[in-house]
Amino acid sequence: MNPSLTDTPTLSRRGLLQLSFGASAFLVTVGLGASLSGCSSGEPARGLAALRDSDLPFLRAVIPVMLDGATTAGTRLVATDATLQSLDRGLAHLSPAMLKLTRQLFDVLTLGVTRGPLTGIWGAWENASADDIRQFLSRWENSSLSLLRQGHGSLLQMVMMAWYSRPESWAHCGYPGPPLISS
User: Fold this and answer.
1) Residue 117 CB-density burial (10 A; 0-12 exposed, 13-18 middle, 19+ buried)
2) pTM across the whole model
3) Residue ranges of the domains in the chain?
4) Which residues of 27-40 are buried (b: 16+ CB within 10 A; e: fewer)?
5) For burial by CB atoms within 10 Å, which of 56, 57, 110, 161 has the most?
6) pLDDT tens digits for 74-126?
7) Are residues 22 and 145 in contact, defined by beta-carbon separation less than 8 angstroms?
């Protein structure tokens, strides 16, 4: 006998609260573990205002994949560096609470004990292929866990805002730039 859609269990309000509590407890535990192990230094990387050394390998691996199609292969490295600079400037202007949440997201993605199970990337980000990163992004985008979908959305928005705030990105999408204001 095949179960119908009406026979499948649904997530109750209590179940949703339990799931949310569990996910929050998990993130707090990971954040605390990362800070106690020294992985989550609050000090920015040299020459940056907000991004930490531990964030950079992840971002340098993910940004080129996210910018695929918006840049050419020849400009991807320069575009990645420019996007990192824009992202750093944007993060430096966040409220302390929002910066803390963003750093927790980066900690979850860079800490080995959580990176593998949550992303499918079991080794260092520098060794992940573009296909591996695409699979991770797709898994998070289409996850049944809202926390992972929110993480994907946050990461996507941060990177896209950082890239498309740069004048060199405008020509690709047909934006002529802001109008000139004459005095």
Assistant:
1) exposed
2) 0.77
3) 50-169
4) beebbeebeeeebb
5) 110
6) 999 999 999 999 999 999 999 999 999 999 999 999 999 999 999 999 999 99
7) no
